[in-house]
Design brief:
Radius of gyration: 23 Å
Distance between the termini: 75 Å
Shape: globular
Largest sheet: 7 strands, mixed
Number of strands: 21
Strand order of the largest sheet: 15-14-13-16-19-21-20
CATH class of the largest domain: Alpha Beta
Number of helices: 10
CATH topology of the largest domain: Rossmann fold
CATH superfamily of the largest domain: Vaccinia Virus protein VP39
Helix content: 25-40%
């Protein structure tokens, strides 16, 4: 019986040769043989030369994810080797001192495209960004249990329409326990020596964005004695980091009272008195307008909004919206104060994000001198052949007077 042909076009051949792990659906993939999601397929060019082994995802935009440039079997030993390599990279090259919550496997960066595994204390959380991993989830779970001996392993679902579901995400269950002991209620984990509460079962997210760990460590060095404004504060991880590092006063603003209550609990977990700081339940843009009217000024302002958010009062999108947000922040930032803008919007690159900040500074009538450009923590690693893996922009700028040329 002849081997089934999964032929890719010249553009995809070029991308594979450059080491990119995705095959995007096009006119060539439309003629591929019918196979079940999760099948291993051999990709070849139009001359029949074998190029790679990939995980098939029929019906998805990324129709195949490359696992190897050679022929392989998705076996227990292959999975074990990938997980061991990911662990060794983190233990040997990253500083995880005082940290029990981090990314153990980062999809394409660790040779398992479309699959992530996060550690939260004695628990592991796996997320599949393609249905193609579902048939192999039991095998992966078995290897995870053998290698890491966790108390339990959860799967976190990734709904497609996250914008529409975001408003319901505070109390909706998007996880299931795959094996082990259930974690009842919130779990305490550590990051950079600080305690944080995470929820492994409810909500779209667990309550702690692990990709900001290194940035929070840098943040802690900049806040002593400062008045700090944390916008889109979520559960207050940056606020806790500031208060624990000697900030004079931290003001946390978020539209969700539930998340700010969670932030207060995070303060209490670190023996920080939340009453010495300020928690404001409001739309961040309305809060900024009110602070301006009241004549309030801050030494340091941080904003890390979702890529898209909609409240009863306003709608925000990273593209086109960051400039106005930066302007409002700069208007209440003290001279020589520090503005930190952060975005995880994958479709906005560094140059585009910097243009948004530039527009914001010009509208505010000041200079914004960039002193730092950071990305995600090292456990969210990516290969040099996969530029999409660098998604987090974290820019630090100092406000100064406009220079008249």
């Amino acid at each position: 019986m002849a081997e089934k042909q999964f032929i890719v076009g010249p553009d995809t051949v070029r991308m594979i040769e450059l080491g990119h792990p995705w095959v995007i659906a096009d006119r060539f993939t439309k003629s591929w043989p019918q196979e079940r999601s999760g099948e291993l397929i051999s990709l070849s060019d139009q001359t029949g030369e074998r190029l790679a082994t990939a995980l098939y995802s029929p019906g998805e935009r990324i129709v195949a994810r490359i696992l190897s440039r050679t022929q392989i079997a998705l076996s227990r030993e292959w999975i074990r080797r990938k997980l061991q390599q990911a662990l060794e990279l983190r233990l040997e090259h990253l500083d995880l001192t005082g940290t029990t919550a981090y990314r153990l496997v980062n999809g394409e960066g660790d040779g398992l495209p479309g699959l992530t595994i996060d550690r939260y204390g004695d628990y592991l959380m796996v997320q599949c960004y393609t249905q193609a991993w579902s048939p192999h989830l039991k095998l992966i779970t078995d290897v995870m249990r053998e290698l890491f001996s966790p108390r339990g392993i959860y799967e976190k679902f990734r709904p497609q329409e996250t914008r529409r579901l975001a408003a319901k995400s505070e109390s909706t269950c998007y996880s299931q326990l795959l094996t082990g002991e259930r974690q009842k209620g919130r779990l305490t984990v550590t990051e950079n020596g600080l305690n944080f509460l995470v929820d492994l079962e409810e909500g779209l997210n667990t309550g702690l964005f692990l990709d900001q760990r290194d940035n929070r460590r840098d943040f802690m060095l900049r806040v002593k004695g400062k008045t700090v404004l944390n916008l889109f504060a979520y559960t207050g991880a940056f606020s806790v980091a500031a208060a624990a590092s000697g900030a004079q006063k931290v003001t946390s603003v978020d539209v969700s009272a539930t998340y700010l209550d969670w932030a207060r609990e995070n303060f209490n977990c670190n023996r920080l008195n939340p009453k010495r700081h300020e928690f404001v339940v409001d739309d961040c843009f309305f809060a900024l307008d009110r602070f301006k009217r009241e004549g309030r000024r801050f030494d340091l302002i941080l904003f890390d909004p979702p890529s898209f958010s909609s409240t009863r009062k306003s709608t925000f999108a990273t593209r086109g919206g960051t400039a106005g947000l930066a302007t409002s922040c700069l208007q209440i930032l003290k001279e020589n104060g520090l503005l930190i803008g952060s975005s995880n919007h994958q479709k906005t690159d560094i140059a585009e994000y910097q243009k948004e900040l530039r527009r914001g500074a010009l509208q505010a009538g000041c200079e914004l001198r960039l002193i730092g450009l950071h990305s995600q923590s090292g456990d969210f690693n990516y290969t040099v052949t996969f530029p999409e893996g660098r998604y987090l922009k974290y820019m630090l700028g100092v406000k100064t007077e406009m220079i008249n040329l």
